[in-house]
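W.,

You were right to be curious about this one. When I first looked at the sequence I had no strong expectations either way, so I just let the prediction run and decided to look at it fresh. Below is the sequence, 542 residues in total, followed by the output.
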Amino acid sequence: MKLSLHPDPARALREMALLLDRAWHPNVVRVHATGRWPDPVEGLPYFVMDCVEGLALHLWTETVNPTFRQVAMVGGSVAMTLGVLHARGVLHRDLKPEHILIRAREQVPVLIDFGAGDQTGAATLTTTTLPPGTLHLRSPEAIRFQQRHWRQPELRYPYREADDLYALGVCLYRAVTGHYPFPPGQEPELLAVAITERLPPSPRDINPQVPEPLSRAILRLLEKEPEQRPRTGEAAHSELMRGLLSGGAAAFEAHLFDEIPGTPNQIRRPAWPAQPYLRPAPRPRPVPEPVAPRRFPAWGWVGVVVCLGLLLAGPRTWEVLLRGWTRHTTPQVPESVSAPLGHKLANPPDRPHSVPVAAPVAAQKEEHTPVTTKPPAPPSPKPVRALKAATLASCMAGMACASAPLVDRPTLPAEDCPEDAKAAMQKLKVDERQWAAYFVPKTDSDFVTVREGRAAVYTHGTEGRVQWGSMLTGTLYFGSKRVYGRFTQLRQKKTGETYPVCVELWFLDDRTRGVPRSEGGDENTAVVPNLMSVRTVWRYDE
């Protein structure tokens, strides 16, 4: 019952007893007693349950090699059982082939292991975002919830009836094909992408003997959106039984797999297709309502008119403005000053592209010193052009303030690379190196869809002591135009050794941090080039 996973064994034991009491059903393992032994207060928790003699669902199909009729009956029975439990507010939450036993005598299914189960009104025992479970049996919406809220570990996924029905679809897919719709041997990051973004091959594409109605019913349970699956266990039962009640019932009398000649009780498992996955049809996006154009403020038009008038004004106008500017803002600076006590003043340095300003003057004594001045010369064209440029810049800056600046990069803290990561990169001989990498290896597509949060990329080529195809894991961050990445662990392809590293995502073509976003994606996804570059760094800059 996995009670050791819970921080409060006494509470977990009580909740489990209540759960199994509410989950009474002929197709659910029966609990006769519960308590602690040898001490009734501090002893080890125990359950007294029926002993179910039989094989797990996937072992039963490969050992007994039943007919498709028997598999459909088993699947329909499990669906009806889930429907009854759901009506009582009970969720299994960890349904998989190992938890569906087939009684050897009656050939009927029995659900076991409600250690991760839940019931309406009970306080949750879950301490993680997702309840305990197995990744390749999780629903797409559960994985999307974790991807969307990975920065909020306090949130809990609201497990629903649709999650149990999706897991049933995975179990039946495994039963009739010998394979899971999304093979669990993949890297977790790739497996999560496949579950949320790819369509599994039809069971008939793997095992042509699967009756079309049964294949269609299983795929319905595996729909990406919960609204497209059967709403209840009873509805799933009806779809699984529909083929038996139609004219094509003869196809259900065939056995699941071909037997190997000369080896009794040995079946030939169908091969997994070389290119299994397809992209689901894009979901229609709501057409945004037209937004009324924002009215430019009246003061803004006044500023535009003034700026245009100044820029189109003749030279005489600028001379007048320049005289007024220097008279009221800057005192006239004499070209020569007779400094007392032998001090000599340096000529004021030229200040191109600016209006004249006062030069520093040496401190004067109280006595009057004769000062020789010349009549002011008319302003030269240089200051006029400079004033024009300054006015234009001021106008453009003022008008730019009306709109918010577009910030592409997300706010990321600057961090020094940890010392153990620096040492590891030096050991791998990849300090201050840059080399190619893929988001998804072994694909013909030039672009892939990624999600913000935890991610992995795979090295393309050998660099230093890093093996070809090694995995870098870290985090992706979305900007408005680019996707940025920081990776903190490297796992060698062949040996499986892991090393702490400091690696950033770069783009090959323009040698800049991050990769550009292409057309497509939504608020949670981005379409980016599959091939990019990664670079080791000693410090993550902002």
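Here's what jumped out at me. Residues 68-87 form the longest helix (20 residues). And, maybe more interesting for your project: Residues 52-117+134-259 form a domain with the Transferase(Phosphotransferase); domain 1 fold (CATH 1.10.510.10).

Coffee later to discuss?

I.
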